[in-house]
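Incident review: delayed structure delivery

Summary: a single-chain prediction request sat in the queue longer than the usual turnaround. Root cause was a stuck worker, restarted by the on-call engineer. No data loss occurred. The affected request and its eventual output are reproduced below so the record is complete for anyone auditing the incident later.

Affected input:
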Amino acid sequence: MGTRGSNATVTENGTQRPPPVGLVAGTEDSTPLLFNVALGQDSYLQLDDVVVTVRAVPGVGPVLTSGIVTQVTARTEGASFGSDVFLINEGVLPAQVQEIAEITTTRVDPECYVPPRPGVPVHRATGDERAQALYFDRMDSKVPVGLGRDGEPIYLNLEFLDGTRGGHVSISGISGVATKTSFALFLLYSIFRSGVLGNRAVNAKALIFSVKGEDLLFLDHTNRRLTDAESGPELQGAYARLGLPAEPFASAGFFAPPTPDDPTGRPHVTGRTSGISPFWWTLREFCADELLPFAFADAEDERNQYTSVIHQVTTRLRHDAMAAGLDGAVSIEGRLLRTYQDLVGFVSDKLTDEDHAVRAPWAGPVTGTGTINAFLRRLRSSLTPLRSIIRGDLTDSPGRRVSTEGQQVTVVDLHNLPERAQRFVVGVVLAAETARKEAAGPGGLLFTMIDELNKYAPREGSSPIKEVLLDIAERGRSLGIILIGAQQTASEVERRIVSNSSIKVVGRLDPAEAGRPEYGFLPPSQRGRATLARPGTMFVSQPEIPVPLAVEFPFPAWATRLSESAGEPQRVPSTGDATTNGASRSRLSRLPSVDDDPPF
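Output delivered after worker restart:
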């Protein structure tokens, strides 16, 4: 092959290339976008390796073609039958094993698109040539997202994350295997702690909706692995290779719903007993802020007539509800309402009153009993899911309002709520944050992480929360709101949300799902590999690089469950802390060092 024992070669700019791994093959057509490499007997290439080859073009000079290995095959040349391999192995038949690597071109520099010629040496790309092949040299702001197959860092271009040239991230994969949530958290950590945001880090926030147990309530706790004598140095080394500190999230606040039927309103959690604020909405807010449509957050056909009843009742509640006391209760037409059950009962009475003069102002132009009953069935079915988070019987306090102010990362725990209540919370909080960002004008970034996105923005139907998410997907980056959505199946998520995501990430996929058109950005070999990917391996696609990159990201430096916690973090009192029913929200988990970003 001519590669055995070859020495490193010198590039045009004076740097050294490693010895060639093979030559451009002549048995298959070589094109500017796809070519094959015949590997030397003592060489190998694996999937995702980055290679370069140079061709001298008259009048242009050396043209460097870079690419990624997307397939590797091995065959015995000279064998005619399947059984010949035994004779060849015994030396009876002359033959040779040959490996061929398929290379998908990522970059041609200068842009003279000529095919690599057969017989030209091919080298592994290292150093500046690797950065050039993967467009890292053109990224002014690079976010490390993991290590490639060669053990070197892989980066994302911040301009496709912060709204400059694009925004939003879509992460897909099988639940429990694809580590979607872990990758999303690592991405946020890397954005905040790599220094890539510069001065903008002060106003950068993350809003995380957690639906999987209490795993995300310990982001400010150090993971035990960091303090372990065996695993600690290895984990710290993995972060060091990416230029990141191996630490938990430094500034985090946590919210959880109140415990049902508990008059004190304590947070409904068990593993963490401090640093968590309960959240709920008062009846006064529910009426004044027109939150009733979010109680109907199931995806419905918007042509249903009962939707007009929703809007009519919402308007009446906003105009007629009067504050009653300091605990968020309301009075409507002289009737005191202290619980969501009271409110549902009042609306039901109005809509079922036999006197048309009483019913008409609440039903609006709808006169059909069937339409009103359809509305009431759905309203009454919301009673059990929402009764614990829409309250007029708890002492009001500013600390119970979900807010991103005062900390960099805000976690809203939803796992103890029914799905309908989860949709209500996500919809109301996102609508409020979108309105706040719109009123505040340009400046500041809000990364919103939502797991199981298909529940909130399914492909079919319409709902208030889906409209909020579509609004964020289509114009959120102009407001500084970036959506990080995770789902098992991208094929079940609203198309406009997926298509507006500049960054697409795939972990382990179900074979049937991998064949869907939503994963057309994956080459055939990566689609097959996605069905075998192990936890911690993701395929990351970004606009500048024509081939998705396989990355492995390190194990979290923060605790992902109580058993992984190395102990309570050091607390720093903050004037912004609020104490509600004995549960105080943690603003800072430790004193910042001189190398840290400014505290939040």
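Verification: The chain is about 25% helix and 20% strand.
Action items: add queue-age alerting; document worker restart procedure.
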